[in-house]
Amino acid sequence: MVPVALGLLFCFFSIRVSAQSPAAINVSDCGTSTTLTSTTIPGYSNLIWDNGSTATSRVVNASGAYWWQVTGANVVTNGNFSSGNTGFTSQYTYRYVGQNGLGNPCCGVLSAEGTYAVDSNPRNVHTNFSSFTDHTNGSGNMLIVNGSPTNNVTVWTQNIPIIANTDYVFSVWVTSASPANPAQLQFSINGSQLGTTIIPAAVANGTWQYFTTTWNSGNVSGLSIPIALVNKNIVANGNDFAIDDIVFAPVYRQNINVTLNPIPVLTLTPSAEACGVYNLVQTILGYDNVTYAYVFKDSQGNVITNPTAVVQSGVYTITAQNRVTGCTSLPQQTTITINPNPQKPGITSL
Questions:
Q1: In terms of domains, do 80 and 210 share one?
Q2: Is 302 in the same domain as 200?
Q3: CB atoms closer than 10 angstroms to residue 161
Q4: What's the domain range around 194?
Q5: Residue 167 shares a structural domain with residue 55
Q6: Is residue 251 part of a domain?
Q7: Over the chain, what HEC string results?
Q8: Is the pTM of the predicted complex or chain greater than 0.90?
């Protein structure tokens, strides 16, 4: 518990699991950005990208790993606690506002560690908890907890149906009821904890935080598989938090590996003059036939098959294509003037 009233901190923690997610897509593009686009998966909704965007497409400006995902139907009952203290069990002791027989608690019905309540505001159940509303819509309930100093106590658990060899998302919104000594939470499925320990930031500025991981059911299946949220913080002071909007649903995640390749920069001599014939290759500064394939065109757009021996004056266009990435430079032009070779002077015999 906490000795003084403190501010609000909301955090979203999520353990994600993908439903038969496909192999990663490899995208190789030229330039400094590319556009990634999601696809519609029947029976799935709530599109989200790795950066939190919900748009159908997004522009990325760096090489790296990206993903989008959609989720199926949530199988958790009363995950937003709108129906009160129903649909789940807890190893903590339930308390409610106005409850009799608690003696004379100093600060409300959640004065003792290892207790929880379902209410619309933490201040209603502990006078030193921060005052804030639920995550769902600002007018509903949340699960409010005065954490136990005992390790691995189950805060919330529910039996749900699981299909074998399916990917799932397991998520929950979490907030500190006070910022001191934040909770240390762990997701658990069928008795096995998974993911890294989730610790809400110890600040009271209302900043949401988002955490994800993945889990595949493998050969686990059945109509009554326990999923749980476990508190691992063993310090009594602080360790006060609330949770809301628990989701367990199949998820389809598309991973995308992006490689952005630089566009070649081609620099030419702007103009040149020669007698009779000219080698266009000479106009290319830093000519590199190993790295680049060059294309030469005349002023009519015709490809020149022998650029080393042009005999007509005109404006010529050259592009360079990287032989590995396929990226092509912007076309560059050079003006070539071909002068006729001087004729031998006539010799007159005397």
A1: yes
A2: no
A3: 11
A4: 9-258
A5: yes
A6: yes
A7: CCCCCCCCEEEEEEECCCCCCCCCEEEEEECCCEEEECCCCCCCEEEEECCCCCCCEEEECCCEEEEEEEECCCCCCCCCCCCCCCCCECCCEECCCCCCCCCCCCCCCCCCCCEEEEECCHHHCCCCCCCCCCCCCCCCCEEEEECCCCCCEEEEEEEEEECCCCEEEEEEEEEECCCCCCCCEEEEECCEEEEEEECCCCCCCCCCCCCCCCEECCCCCEEEEEEEEEECCCCCCCCEEEEEEEEEEEEEEEEEEEEEECCCCCCECCEEEEECCECHHHHECCCCCCCEEEEEECCCCCECCCCCCECCCEEEEEEEEECCCCCECCCEEEEEEEECCCCCCCCCCC
A8: no
Nearest to 19 by CA among 79, 77, 69, 54: 69
For residue 38, the Cα-to-chain-centroid distance in whole angstroms is 13
Here the tokens at position 297 are 């065109």
Instruction: Quote the radius of gyration of the chain (alpha carbons, Å).
Output: 34
Q: What is the CATH number of the domain that holds 82?
A: 2.60.120.260
pLDDT tens figures, 206-228: 565 766 667 889 998 888 999 99
Centroid of chain to Cα 120: 31
One-letter amino acid for residue 142 of the chain: M
Give the model's pLDDT for residue 214. 72
Cα 282 from chain centroid (whole Å): 49
Are residues 251 and 301 both part of a single domain?
A: no
Domain boundary among 207, 236, 258: 258
Q: Write out residues in the chain with pLDDT < 70, as ranges.
A: 1-20, 203-208, 210-213, 345-350
Distance separating alpha carbons of residues 19 and 111, to the nearest angstrom: 42
Last-in-domain residue among 238, 258, 278: 258
Q: State whether 45 and 113 are in the same domain.
A: yes
- Report the amino acid identity of residue 237: N
Residue written as tokens 């201040």? Answer: 123
